[in-house]
Specification:
Elements (H helix, E strand, L loop, with lengths): L4 H7 L3 H5 L4 H4 L2 E5 L6 H15 L6 E5 L10 H13 L8 E2 L5 H7 L12 E6 L15 E6 L12 E4 L5 H12 L5 H14 L12 H10 L11 E2 L9 E2 L5 H12 L7 H7 L1 E7 L5 E9 L3 H8 L1 H14 L4 E12 L2 E12 L7 H10 L4 E3 L9 E6 L6 H13 L2
Parallel strand pairs: 1-2, 1-4, 2-3, 4-5, 5-6, 10-11
Antiparallel strand pairs: 7-8, 9-10, 11-12, 12-14, 13-14
Helix pairs in contact: 4-7, 4-8, 5-8, 5-10, 7-8, 7-9, 8-9, 12-13
The structure holds manganese (II) ion.
Length: 417
């Protein structure tokens, strides 16, 4: 029996209460679908649409969990507006979604953990999407992971999962779309629009020059596009850095949708330094050569370093980064700033990299820096900024390397230290 997207959306409202219920006998069999902790548009849409996909072949409720605090949604105007619009079209709202701080995840897991610790599939199953290993603060999920749908480098974990659909495509939502299409060739227009959006955003509107789209992404767009009803989209926001041009999703084609989402995503110039660091953030544990564990955090910031320095000054940025390293107890923090900036009068896309060390690892900092500067990221010293031993500034010449490439590079460097 197939479930319509609108009845799935209407059922979301009971999920938080279900997860807070006293016992697994009261909550019953469950599937949790988690996106990654950066909770960007791809992650949010992938977890919602994958949960919906799973309900097509199973009567067990699949609950999407947005893997970031609810308040962080205000840092992501693109997610806020797209989800508000598409959920409303299906008779739901953002309030109905379960965010990670709406529930006590460790206690949910504990309730489903048998006394002998032998986890039986089918009681509580976890699916990971837009990541393929539980984040460092959610390692306890690992025995419950039954499925993975992701587009990052395979970290080689959760090898017992029955489904490991890991493929380096532009957008994770394209992989979910492919899976959904096998089960349901025609989908609701609100869902088509929801799935289409991260695919456009992650592939720069399938641009050949951006070179991010794969055949899987193109197939997803070709499948979804005829199912979108453009006239339905109408919502605007005034939360804009350019006050006289509110961004609207009342658009008529993919190009307009892409530019509207891109503009919304780029509205970061009014965020504080701390919000910039936490907006799109991921954290990992990495073992070095001697088996000692490093706490690694990478912030992706859609704001060029030059503009940020002009706005806040170098000292304030260094202070914010050091504060962040302390707050998250990091051994190493990378801040990847990226976006367009004027270079010799022409707006060009570029990347910069800030590398910061925690006190505990200062003795290893020069080894790590040597590894990073020798890597294919092609780092050069950032002109006009004075690096200290603790916080260093670089320009990253290899501009196509996003966090998907930078994390494996850093991991390799730490593993050899
Ligand atoms: Mn993604």
């Amino acid at each position: 029996m197939t479930v319509s997207f609108s009845s799935f959306v209407k059922s979301l409202a009971v999920n938080t209460a279900r997860l807070s219920s006293a016992s697994p006998w009261a909550a019953g069999k469950l599937t949790l679908v988690l996106g990654n902790e950066s909770a960007d548009l791809d992650s949010m849409v992938s977890s919602i649409s994958l949960a919906y996909t799973l309900t097509q072949t199973s009567s067990v409720p699949a609950i999407p969990i947005i893997n970031a605090p609810r308040a962080d949604l205000s840092l992501r105007p693109d997610c806020n507006l797209l989800l508000t619009t598409t959920l409303a079209l299906s008779g739901g709202s953002l309030h109905d979604l379960t965010f990670i701080d709406d529930i006590d995840l460790p206690s949910v897991i504990e309730k489903y953990t048998p006394a002998d610790n032998y986890v039986v599939p089918g009681q509580l199953d976890v699916w990971l999407t837009d990541h393929n290993a539980p984040t460092s603060t959610q390692i306890f999920l690992e025995p419950f992971v039954r499925g993975i749908v992701d587009h990052h480098v395979d970290e080689g974990r959760c090898l017992g999962a029955e489904t490991r659909d890991i493929e380096m495509v532009g957008s994770c939502a394209s992989l979910v779309a492919r899976m959904l299409r096998e089960r349901e060739p025609l989908v609701d227009s609100a869902l088509a629009k929801m799935l289409l959006s991260p695919v456009l955003l992650d592939t720069a509107n399938l641009s050949p020059t951006a070179n991010k789209a794969t055949d899987v992404d193109r197939a997803a767009v070709a499948w979804l596009l005829p199912q979108v009803q453009w006239a339905q989209m109408s919502a605007t926001t005034n939360d804009d850095d350019d006050a006289d041009s509110p961004v609207s999703l009342d658009v008529q084609n993919t190009t307009e949708l892409y530019w509207a989402l891109d503009k919304l995503k780029g509205q970061v110039s009014d965020l504080s330094a701390r919000d910039l660091l936490r907006k799109d953030y991921k954290q990992w544990l990495v073992n070095d050569h001697s088996g000692s564990q490093w706490n690694v955090g990478i912030s992706s910031v859609g704001y060029r370093l030059k503009k940020w320095v002009k706005r806040d000054g170098q000292e304030a940025i260094v202070a914010a980064v050091e504060q962040w390293v302390g707050e998250r107890q990091l051994d190493i923090a990378l801040v990847m700033t990226h976006g367009k900036a004027k270079q010799k009068g022409v707006k060009t896309y570029g990347r910069d990299l800030v590398v910061a060390f925690g006190e505990r690892r200062m003795d290893k900092s020069s080894d790590v820096i040597a590894g990073l500067t020798a890597s294919d990221l092609e780092l050069t010293d950032f002109a006009k900024l004075q690096s200290t031993e603790q916080v260093r500034f670089y320009e990253q010449q290899r501009t196509e390397a996003s966090r998907k490439q930078v994390f494996p590079t850093l991991k390799g460097v730490i593993e050899s230290v």
